[in-house]
Structure formats: structure tokens, C-alpha cells
Amino acid sequence: MKSNIWTIIKKEFARFFGDKQLIFTAVIMPGLLIYLIYSLMGTGINNMIADSENQQITLQVENMPESMSTMLLAHNVPPMCKVELGPFSDNDIKKLNDKELNLLLIRFPSDFDQQVEDYNSLQSEAIPNIEIYYNSANMASNIVYDRLHDEIMSFERGYQINESEAAEPTKQYDVADESIGSMIWSKILPMLILMMLFSGVMAIAPSAIAGEKERGTIATLLVTPMKRNELAIGKIVSLSCIALLSGISSFIGIALSLPNMISAEDANLGFDYTFNDYIALMFIIFSSVLIMASAVSLLSALAKDVKNAGTMITPFMLVVMLCGLMPLMQDGASESITTYCIPFYNSIQAMTAVFAHNLNWGFVAITLAANIVFASVAVWGLTKMFNSEKVMFSK
Amino acid sequence: MEEILHAEGLCKTFTLSRKQQKIERTTAKRKTAVDHLTFSAYRGEIFGLLGPNGAGKTTTLRMLSTLIRPDEGDAILDGCSVVNQPSEVRGKIGFLTSELKLEDFFTPNYLFDFFSRLHGVEEATIRERKERMFCRFGIDKFAEVKVANLSTGMKQKLSLVISLVHDPEIIIFDEPTNGLDVLTARTVTDYLQELRSEGKTIILSTHIFSLVERLCDRVGIIIDGRMTVCGTLNEVCGGIPLEDRFFNIYKELKGGEA
């Protein structure tokens, strides 16, 4: 049995590695395209930022409070910003609205510090209000707005923390780079990895199964004494390995384009994962590829030809994409065991946990077990299909 | 004579699509392709299944080769049942039909090794057999040429060679000379006679009378999925040419429609 599976795997490898065009399409192109697109995007964004930093923008602050002046003006205003203190009129707001002036207007209440003090000591329920007028269509205006907004939010957070942590006044509110970085990675990378692996499977699986049906070569295999489950295992394992290569290529593309995507000062975005994290990721990725290859193989076997396989796989791909988007809508990985029993969704959740520096080996083990069970069911299903004359020979 | 193949009451029906129903001008949802077919073949003979297009010859051969399962009945090939031991049956037969294709991407050399391994043939035997067969059919000069670049005749010869990589006792060929030029067709028919002289049993389906007369020891005529007559060539023909005998049987059954 082993030898037949190995013979099928070797044949699939020979088919793939002997075809330069296929290697280019499935392995080299994804990584190369991702690298080029991301690098171009990064260069474009950096150029836009650099251009906007050359623009002059006037920051007009009305009623600048004592408490905010150092924070706002000392080191957080970009160099292209010219700060003017003093009142502004509705006419200035109209000019900003009409895009006549490159302006950013901030109006504090005249007794801002007092209002903050009253609100903080529960003497007043009125929340101090700051008015900011800016032009969202202008990059320079946006950059200055983002920085000021962050500072004001940080100022506000500081008050809330002080209030709730009054008993421990020395305790600091630490927003470490690692938390922000890992939060970003945990939301984006699982989806990216899943999509890359899926595109790898898509590049080869329909041709390897539906294509063989279409060309009539699967029938030649079916008249050999090889057992149908050997053919199913051989196909799924070989397709998984090749898809993994495609995924690795995409991953390298991302890794190489990363420095171009994020500017040097932001480069250390908490991508400091441990050996254990990488091992867990490897297990999750391997098992994910296995179930993807299994599922796509099942659909390809059902399809009449490669074109039909593409049509059948598209809705399935949308579901997988939806699973990939889940981390964006939730706060951290799920803690429910059931979640880790659902194929695809479990991989996304397990990867989210790893990237959020929240590795749980129990959940990784459940994910692995669930994926292996699913792949085994798929092998059984594919075996049934290879045995079914209706599926294999219907036109 | 040793019986090596016995088919007993083989039946196969197919569901007709609406399109097929229109083409066949019928309202019946199922069509009987093979209707309780019974026959035997003996070791060392060439048995011909003769019949018009759509008579059920190919369906019968596909059931014998375990590609499809009979709805009823069974066939025992060299002691193994097509219903209960399909994998064992596949190890004992060589099956050649235009339906079975070889991957264009690979070379004859690679494909011979690949299919030999799937049949569990020893490496030394693979080498020796490949050299002999490739030389016999003139494939040796094209051993490293991709199938896509081979001529139709060479592809057919390669398909024949691939179907025999494991030196099977029973060889099932569906219309083996269809679409071949006279030279290639002759090579194939000569080889079938060679195989018979080696003691192999050959079941072939065809609608070419001259081929049956030249090659077959025994013949079965199938019309509408039923075996109408089966026996040695002399028994079936009864002293008249096979073609005339066939049309007589056909007229008897179908009342003159051709």
C-alpha cells in the first residue's frame, strides 16, 4: 500500500517539477507578485507621505490650554506644520471647507483644564469637548490630524487610568510596541496565510483531479490493481506538499516586501515570536494545507472538468475568506473548544492566538486532531468517488 | 479446454438524461445496455464480441475490467469475481480501450515504469520487459519523447504496451484497431496472435467482420445487449460468410430495419 501511495506522490511531483511553466505559475509567481505589489505599494505610500511632509500646513489653535500645550506642540507636530495660537472664525472654517486654505483648526473650550478637573473629580458630568476641523482629502492634513488625535486620546486615557488606578498612583499605563504589533499581525496574517495556501491549492488541485478526469487519464489509473484509497491519499498528500511550496513562496514575498511596506521607524512592530510559536504555526499550517487540499480534491473529483471545478470551488473559497476575516471582527482568539473543531475556522483562530502572543497548545492540538480527522473523512469520500462510476465517468 | 472467464447474467442499465431521451425518441428513463449476458472464454483463445454500435460490447468489457459494476450478474476471471474482488481482477487483466488515455506530459519510458510499479512488477523485470516490448513495437526510438508529441499510431502502440506491463493472463481489447492505419493495425493484430500462441486469453470487441474471421477462435454476437449466438466461428457461421450470417440474425431480431 505504502509503495503505491509513494508511486502516486512521485508521479505528481514529477508532473509538477517537470513543468517549468507550472513551477513559475504556482511557486515563483505568487511570491514574486506579492513582493512586487507590496513593494510598489509601500514605495507609493512612503512617497505620498514624503510629498505631504513637504507641504506647509497651518495649525490654528484657539484657547490652547496649559495642560496640552507641551504635549501638543513640543514634539508631536510634524515639521511641515506652522502653529498659530489665537481664535479663528466661521469664515476660516468655510475656507477650509472650500479647500482654499491648507488649514487644521482646533478649538478648546476657554476653561478646558477646569472642565477636565471637574469631570475627573466627579463634580461635573459635562465632558470637555474639543473641536477639530481638517481636510480628510488632504494627506498632510490627515497626517497632522492623526497625530493630534492620538495625543488627545492618549491624554484622555491617562485621565481614565489615573481615576481607576487611584490606589496605585505609581502604576504606569504601558502601551508597549509588542502589543500593538502582535495585535496587527494577529488580525492580518492568519487571513493572508490562509489565502496564500488556498491559492496554492487552487493552482494545482483542479488540474490534478478534474483535469485527469477531463483528459481520461484517471481511468487508466483506475484499471490498475492499486486500491482507490491509495490513489486518494497519494493525490491529497502530494497536492498538500506542492501547495505548501506555493504558500512558502508567498510568505517569502511578504517577508521581503515588509521593510518596504513599513517605514524604518515603524519596522519593529512586535514581530518577535518564540521558537514555540513558530513550531505551533508550522503544525497549524501543515494541517490547514492538508484539509484545503482534501476539500478542493473532493470538489474537483465531483466536477466534470477543470472549468467546472473552478465554478464549484469559488463559493467554498468565499467561505474560507470569510473565516479569514473573522479576526478583524473579534477581540483576540476564541476560547471555546468547539471553535477549534471546525475546519478552516479553527486554523484561523489558532493562528490568531499565536500571532497575539497567546499560544495555547491545547487548542493547537485540538485544531490538529480536528484537521486530521477531516482529512481522513475526505480521503474516505474521495475513495468513494473514485469507486463511483457515476462520478468518474459521467459526462 | 480450461475456462478462464465466465460471465453469468451480466446486466447494466443507465439513466437517460432528457437530451438522451429526445435523441433516442423514448420516454423511458432507463436504458438497458447489457441484458443478462452469459458467455465463457477459454485459456489460449481469442474470443470476439461482435455487434453494431450501441449493442453493449464496450459496456460488457468495462464491466469485465471492473471500471463499472454490473447491476446484476457477475463474471469470474481466473478465479476472481468482478463484483467482489475488483482489485484482484485488475491485477489479472490487461485492458485497452480508447477511453483510457496516457498523460501527454510524460514519456513512454516514465509511463512504463510508473504503471509497472502500480502493478507491483519487480524492477529487474520492468527493465527487461520494457526493452523487449519497446523494441517489438518500435517505441525504443521515442522512449524519451513526450506522449503529446507522438503520432496517433505510436500512441496506440504505447497504450497497448502499457496495458500489458504486468504480463496479464487475460487481455481485454475494445476495438483495438480503430483509427489506426493499415500498418499499425497489422502490427497490433499480429501481436494478438503472438499472445495467443503464448497461451494468453484475449477478449476483443469489434464490428469489423474480417478481423473476427482472421483472428478469433470463438465469437459471440451481441445485439441490443443480448448474446444472440455464441460459439466457434464454424458453429456461428454455419458455412456462410460471417457478414451474411450477422445480417440474417439481425433481420430475424429487428425485422429488417438496419
In short:
With 395 residues, chain A is mainly α. In chain A, 70% of the residues lie in helices and 5% in strands. Chain A has 14 helices and 4 strands.
List the helices and strands and how they pair.
The complex is a heterodimer of chains A (395) and B (258).
Chain A: H1 2-17, H2 20-54, E1 57-62, H3 66-73, E2 81-85, H4 90-97, E3 103-107, H5 112-120, E4 131-133, H6 139-164, H7 177-215, H8 217-222, H9 228-261, H10 275-302, H11 306-329, H12 345-355, H13 361-387, H14 389-393
Parallel strand pairs in A: 1-2, 1-3
Antiparallel strand pairs in A: 3-4
Helix pairs in contact in A: 1-9, 2-7, 2-9, 7-9, 7-10, 7-11, 7-12, 9-10, 9-13, 10-11, 10-12, 10-13, 11-12
Chain B: E1 3-15, H1 18-23, E2 30-42, E3 46-50, H2 57-64, E4 72-77, E5 80-81, H3 86-92, E6 93-96, H4 108-118, H5 123-137, H6 152-163, E7 170-174, H7 182-197, E8 201-206, H8 209-215, E9 218-223, E10 226-232, H9 233-237, H10 242-254
Parallel strand pairs in B: 3-8, 3-9, 6-7, 7-8
Antiparallel strand pairs in B: 1-2, 1-4, 4-5, 9-10
Helix pairs in contact in B: 4-5, 4-6
